[in-house]
């Protein structure tokens, strides 16, 4: 069943190809894969990058907006990078471009919709960059690499897998895909091309693995339409539909169902308006303008004539749906009779926020339909276990590398591969930062391990938040801060007045006068340890902080961040 | 089908009964229900309290350990309170006793296991209180109330529903239940008693509703045993089992399966050791001591001879399982071949923490089985839609009041009731704080609305964290704090030296010298607004804070908490 390693019979036997995942290993998002060709083991010749996505902060990353891949490894190799290939237009595959492209400054390639979504994304950050639209029928030659785009079905149109030929062997880059035989846009996964690539011999299949734990095949996008039809027919008031704003096919279905039921469509929320705008101009979304109503014209229609397609399926603060639920939207109020349809699963970590939003909509009178309790209101864009097995069957790759999933899912993927006859050494389960090296002679090994850090975006800052800042945020979040101000005479080095205590997020100061008085005594005692002129202020400061911490913990069982400030006067 | 309102034919027609949920409405936890009897509308005669549980903080309640019901309403009525009845031993039904009982100081009642678990809980807080064990065969007379305990199946033994007779009518308090026909302890839900109560006439059924969105009946606890058997037989190394530490029946099953497969049992983690200890002494858990091994003796056995029953199914920091996964447990390390079984669903909000823990266990070599991907590894203790319908059918109550669920679930419950023939005015959907009043003449209405607040527990503090402190924590969590220290001459009122800027959780100060220098200029400019002697320091302080906030937002797009401190010298 399984091909022998595809040997490099023409090239030199010393050459190697290294796959360096700078994101996307042990992780569903933040996808960035480096394909590095070396003509000799010590000579980096050419680098190709696949995808450039953002990740989302975990709960401990207080205040962080986004996480991007750590490209430290690439910094001294920029002149070897031949380009960035984008597989599709989702944030976790294109979202880091505004931060990383200005550093690398290399050509970017993608299918038509992907390229345009990336360009709009870059424009939002003030970057005017042309993204190259590839020709699906001719492999892209880029350095020593040849890249064929193979169309796959996913939850966004124009998604592709990549068949990458290198001097060391052929690789199949199987990022996000499923086998949807009745896709909304009619464009099925090009199984014939995948099979042909398999026939040519594939050294390694990199495969999406996030849904490996779900048996069977992922259902077609098509089945949702019937559910939507039923919901809209049972809606006496406004029909309010929300999904991920990148889910163009889903939005198309909501549009079709609305028009069929004689409702006008209103798009609400920046990212939906933007994505639908791009997709409409490129004809990836189709409707007649006469059915679209602007937000300020909503009042001209009866509730039963309206269908709102809105942002906020993850209960993002300030999204259209959140504002509608909170009763602060400029044009829309929830009324008894309205139906709200969530056609998206909550992203892990957002479950509570989504449930709170659903509750608020319910209290205000809406009937809410959401995928957790109702089948066929959302289907995943990712293949389930059998989709993944089918991909292995089509590619017949010599080695397998599950990507875009947690370590738990990678492990489940490997179990599936073993059941299909793969040997342990054919399934690669690298840890984050590990580099996989393929030699022309057919060897595969973990070559080295990079130490990757989380590059965090906070406001305008890229990577300026590190672990110290985060740790302080965590402490202040759960315990608050107590600031002690000690005035110190500049010339004599003596404490000139009683220290002052200020706190935030710790306790109601006004109701805790006794505690604060006692704390002051602790501080004064700590200051007395060194009589007379204080020269080693650092030492005393540490003493004050330590003693105050001990005292406050004893009294309150809380450990606020303590900050002693000396003011030289 | 539905009984007419059960009229109070003996008592006076002026009497009323008010149900005041101080927790548990629109909320799964924090259960505390007040039954208040008034012989005349303006005369509170007697109060009975059912349950006294804790709630769990939501994501915005940074640093808060627990939330307890707000008993402000009861404070001036303590001499009317006849007692607290506990339905079962779960935290969300007994956990607030240590905080509330010392205030109310009234008798507490429960079944044997519930009473002992409550006593242990109180002892942990240094309170020596005897909880009265009720007699299941004789209704408890308490003031004008008569309370019959009806045994129900749930995820803890000795759980009860209450049939409460009052001078105004009969009430069925149907807190957490399911109809498990093959419970581990053999004690089925007493459907005969429920039906008899129904026959006597029930004015209102208060019913658990949290699983109303799931069709059918909740499966029996029994089915899990087969799954556990399969897992333990496929485990070449240590078998590690985790569930909620209160889930005594589940722990019994893990014990049985372990003994049957010739493994020694080790209990790890304080709450499991404590709960199993109480249950073992009362014979709610049964095993022979010879199968139990202490943690320090683990090394005497081969991995394949061990079964560890551990705390940490919700990935609580410092729980036994978290410490094992992190490699810092004193006696246990994860090895290839170990199997870890999660027999509990993640509590909403803890999903990510649980997934991270599973990933860590997997990376360390364990195979992890958990209920999200494997059927029959966990069943809920709560009844699904048909269980809830059956309860309505048995009680045939005149009115329905869904409790212990979110508003969304209450609404689904009402839909189910309408489908069963109930009228809109028979299903009560109060908002949090609303008081439901039943009159002897058969009227039901929302009488008034209390303004309930979240009473938050943080360390040793009860209710000393309010919204201001929380808001500061939220700001510091996401944006950090910037402190400006301005030395001011006490006698002249002049600024004596350059202001100093200190920050925590905001930015790396050392790498942001330019920003800090610019910020100082902004501060100095703000101080100059008032030339010479500064008398209205409050005004200047606000100016400094406002200008600095504007400057920092412009430069960084972050809004740290800004605190200007004046030091009088």
Automatic annotation (TrEMBL), chains A, B:
SMART domains: Lactamase_B
Residues that bind Ca(2+): 63, 65, 458
One of the protein's GO biological processes: rRNA processing
Coiled coil: none
Single GO molecular function: RNA binding
Cofactor, how bound (note): Binds 1 Ca(2+) cation per subunit. Seen in 1 crystal structure, it is not clear if it is physiologically important. Binds 2 Zn(2+) ions per subunit. It is not clear if Zn(2+) or Mg(2+) is physiologically important.
Positions that bind substrate: 245-247, 378-382
Main localization, broad class: cytoplasm
Protein residues bound to Zn(2+): 88, 90, 92-93, 154, 176
Pfam families, per the entry: Lactamase_B (PF00753), RNase_J_b_CASP (PF22505), RNase_J_C (PF17770)
InterPro entries with a match to the protein in the record: Metallo-B-lactamas (IPR001279), RibonucZ/Hydroxyglut_hydro (IPR036866), RNase_J (IPR004613), RNase_J_2 (IPR042173), RNase_J_b_CASP (IPR055132), RNase_J_bac (IPR030854), RNase_J_C (IPR041636)
Enzyme Commission code(s) on record: 3.1.-.-
All copies of domain Metallo-beta-lactamase, residue ranges: 29-228
Cofactor: Ca(2+); Zn(2+)
Domain of life: Bacteria
Subunit structure: Homodimer, may be a subunit of the RNA degradosome.
Family: Belongs to the metallo-beta-lactamase superfamily. RNA-metabolizing metallo-beta-lactamase-like family. Bacterial RNase J subfamily.
Protein's UniProt name: Ribonuclease J
């Amino acid at each position: 069943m399984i091909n022998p390693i595809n040997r490099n019979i023409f090239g030199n036997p010393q050459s190697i190809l290294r796959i360096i995942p700078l994101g996307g290993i042990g992780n569903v998002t933040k996808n960035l894969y480096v394909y590095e060709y070396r003509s000799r083991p010590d000579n980096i010749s050419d680098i190709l990058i696949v995808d450039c996505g953002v990740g989302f902060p975990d709960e401990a990353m207080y205040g962080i907006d986004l996480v991007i891949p750590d490209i430290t490894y690439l910094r001294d190799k920029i002149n070897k990078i031949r380009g960035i290939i984008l597989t599709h237009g989702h944030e976790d595959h294109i979202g880091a471009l505004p931060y990383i492209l200005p550093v690398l400054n290399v050509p970017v390639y993608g299918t038509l919709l992907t390229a345009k979504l990336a360009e709009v994304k870059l424009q939002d950050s003030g970057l005017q960059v042309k993204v190259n639209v590839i020709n699906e029928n001719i492999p892209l030659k880029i350095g020593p690499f040849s890249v064929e785009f193979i169309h796959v079905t996913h939850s966004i149109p124009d998604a592709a897998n990549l068949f990458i030929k290198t001097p060391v062997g052929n690789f199949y880059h199987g990022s996000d895909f499923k086998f949807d035989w009745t896709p909304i846009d009619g464009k099925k996964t090009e199984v014939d091309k995948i099979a042909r690539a398999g026939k040519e011999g594939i050294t390694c299949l990199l495969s999406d693995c996030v849904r490996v734990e779900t048996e069977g095949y992922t259902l077609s996008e098509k089945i949702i339409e019937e559910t939507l039809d039923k919901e809209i027919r049972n809606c006496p008031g406004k029909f309010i539909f929300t999904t991920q704003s990148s889910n163009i096919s889903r939005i198309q279905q909501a549009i079709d169902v609305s028009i069929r039921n004689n409702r006008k469509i209103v798009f609400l929320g920046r990212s939906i308006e933007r994505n639908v705008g791009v997709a409409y101009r490129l004809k990836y979304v189709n409707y007649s303008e006469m059915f679209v109503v602007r937000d300020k014209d909503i009042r001209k229609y009866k509730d039963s004539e309206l269908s709102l397609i809105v942002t906020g399926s993850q209960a993002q603060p300030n999204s259209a749906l959140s504002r509608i639920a909170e009763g602060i939207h400029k044009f829309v109020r929830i009324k008894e009779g309205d139906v709200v349809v969530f056609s998206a699963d909550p992203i892990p970590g957002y479950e509570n926020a989504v449930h709170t939003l659903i509750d608020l909509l319910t209290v205000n009178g809406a009937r809410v339909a959401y995928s957790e309790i109702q089948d066929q209101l959302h289907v995943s864009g990712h293949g389930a276990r059998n989709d993944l097995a089918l991909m292995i069957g089509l590619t017949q790759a010599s080695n397998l590398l599950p990507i875009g999933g947690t370590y738990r899912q990678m492990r489940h993927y490997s179990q599936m591969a073993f059941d299909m006859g793969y040997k342990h050494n054919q399934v690669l389960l690298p840890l984050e930062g590990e580099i996989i090296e393929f030699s022309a002679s057919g060897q595969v090994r973990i070559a080295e391990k990079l130490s990757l850090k989380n590059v965090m975006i906070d406001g305008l800052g890229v990577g300026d938040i590190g672990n110290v800042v985060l740790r302080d945020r965590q402490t202040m979040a759960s315990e608050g801060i107590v600031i002690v101000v000690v005035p110190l005479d500049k010339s004599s080095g003596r404490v000139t007045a009683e220290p002052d205590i200020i706190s935030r997020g710790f306790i109601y100061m006004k109701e805790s006068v006794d505690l604060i008085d006692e704390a002051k005594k602790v501080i004064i005692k700590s200051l007395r340890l060194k009589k007379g002129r204080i020269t080693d202020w650092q030492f005393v400061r540490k003493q004050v902080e330590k003693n105050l911490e001990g005292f406050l913990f004893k009294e309150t069982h809380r450990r606020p961040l303590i900050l002693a400030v000396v003011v030289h006067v």
